[in-house]
Amino acid sequence: MAAGWRDVVRDPAAVRDAAAVAVDAALLAGGLMRTGEQPHSSDVVNYAPFTLLPSVVPRALFEQAYAVQQDFNLLVDTISQNKEFLEQTLASTIKVDDFTARLFRIYMQVLEEGLAQTVFLGINRSDYMFDCGVDGTTALKQIEINTIAASFGGLTSRTADVHGLVLKVLGKTEEASRLLPNNPAKGLALGIAKAWELYGSQSAVVMFLVEEVQRNIFDQRCVENELWKRNIRVIRRRFRDVFEKGSLDDSRRLYMDGQEVAVVYYREGYVPQTYDQQNWEARLLLERSRAVKCPDIATQLAGTKKVQQELSRPGTLEKLLPGHPEAVARMRATFAGLYSLDEGEEGDKIAAKAIADPERFVLKPQREGGGNNLYGEELRKVLEKIRDSPERTSYILMDKIKPQPALNYLLRAHSPLQVSECISELGIFGVYVRQGQELVLNEAAGHLLRTKAIEHADGGVAAGVAVLDTPYLV
Ligand code: ADP
Ligand code: MG
């Protein structure tokens, strides 16, 4: 283990002291979450789970991830404007996957009517793991791009200071000074503010479209507060509120409770369970409106696993981004093996391979939010069951990334302090704004490191599996 964290692990008394300091520092810094017992109130809160120690990340891979983010922003934005590509790519999926099909129907419906929206705002997070080769080298491999409701850009800004303090307490002042500051919420707010400004109505508000159960509200408040600092009004509403009180005027301006909405920032809307008939109607209303949706429905579709798999086919990136060979090469370098399970010979072959050697792959449905993927024996069982049915088409296969584990402590309220073998996932936030055809902003906005114990194959921070972390670059 680099940077001498090994000596820390050998000293349980020092670890206990440091953990107590760490938890209080996280609370003081605002690294907070509502509790599972009282998710609707901020009367009682916990600290958002985090690692005791920052995790070692190879500097070269960290820089590579930042360097490719503007390319991914451009790619997502380009796909969102390419109807033919989305139609072709998702054709097989929407036959069998109801959720994607419904999103797609709204997409087609708003295109047919003609878009009222002229300013576009993307906030995404490209996630990676550090794949460890047999020769011990590590490579940056993309897990996925989240194009809707990419979270923890607020809370993650709190962890570097906490980890700096922990390292000092452990006698590692020099190492503490090397931790990078990081504030994605500020960058995200900058994008939202730019979109709001281009929308061009001083009195219009930004609407955060939020969940029924809002445990992660503090993460969102970080972005909200950055907007208030710029004197931009923010309101928080649920789909249900939009159904009951949202309306469009003749030029399809969106109004909520009589206030014009310039930007709709979705922190909800990416899982089927969100939508009953009324909420689908609310979604349609929002998409039809002139308001800047972050993301618009096309961009949400651009973030599906099926699109990701198609992008890895030789020639696809080149076709989507002619004239950008360097960007294409940078993006392709981060791709892991991805495979279509569409009906036909190609799908038959890879399905057989995965059934024979399930440890090599991950089976992914068209879902977001963690906990949906299948691994190992379960992958084999499911794939055996669906290998000859059209249902197979609703999944993709991906090579399993195998990072080198490192020892750390996962600090979680009401959990015992114990050392775990952990792996990390690095996310880079991207923000862009387009007005008509012109990209007026395209930036990387900061990073998120999440770490989990190796016994969990899947799941993020919100799912209670991963915890917040800080990269320690070597
Ligand atoms: P979701 O949209 O549900 O977040 P992801 O593709 O990000 O789906 O997968 C969820 C989690 O599963 C990731 O955070 C990662 O921990 C794990 N995972 C996903 N793909 C792979 C892979 N190819 N190799 C290893 N682990 C993976
Ligand atoms: Mg994910």
From TrEMBL:
It catalyses: gamma-L-glutamyl-L-cysteine + glycine + ATP = glutathione + ADP + phosphate + H(+); gamma-L-glutamyl-(2S)-2-aminobutanoate + glycine + ATP = ophthalmate + ADP + phosphate + H(+). GO terms for cellular component: cytosol. Substrate binds at residues 125, 148-151, 214-216, 220, 267-270, 450, 461-462. Keywords: ATP-binding, Glutathione biosynthesis, Ligase, Magnesium, Metal-binding, Nucleotide-binding. InterPro entries: Glutathione_synthase, Glutathione_synthase_a-hlx, Glutathione_synthase_C_euk, Glutathione_synthase_N_euk, GSH-S_sub-bd_sf, GSH_synth_subst-bd, PreATP-grasp_dom_sf. Mg(2+) binds at E144, N146, E368. Residues 204-302 form the Glutathione synthase substrate-binding domain. Its EC number is 6.3.2.3. Its cofactor is Mg(2+). ATP binds at residues 144, 305, 364-373, 375, 398-401, 425, 452, 458. Binds 1 Mg(2+) ion per subunit. Pathway: Sulfur metabolism; glutathione biosynthesis; glutathione from L-cysteine and L-glutamate: step 2/2. GO terms for molecular function: ATP binding; glutathione binding; glutathione synthase activity; metal ion binding. The keyword ATP-binding applies. Catalyzes the production of glutathione from gamma-glutamylcysteine and glycine in an ATP-dependent manner. Glutathione (gamma-glutamylcysteinylglycine, GSH) is the most abundant intracellular thiol in living aerobic cells and is required for numerous processes including the protection of cells against oxidative damage, amino acid transport, the detoxification of foreign compounds, the maintenance of protein sulfhydryl groups in a reduced state and acts as a cofactor for a number of enzymes. Participates in ophthalmate biosynthesis in hepatocytes. Homodimer. Belongs to the eukaryotic GSH synthase family. This is Glutathione synthetase. It comes from Campylorhamphus procurvoides. The gene is Gss.
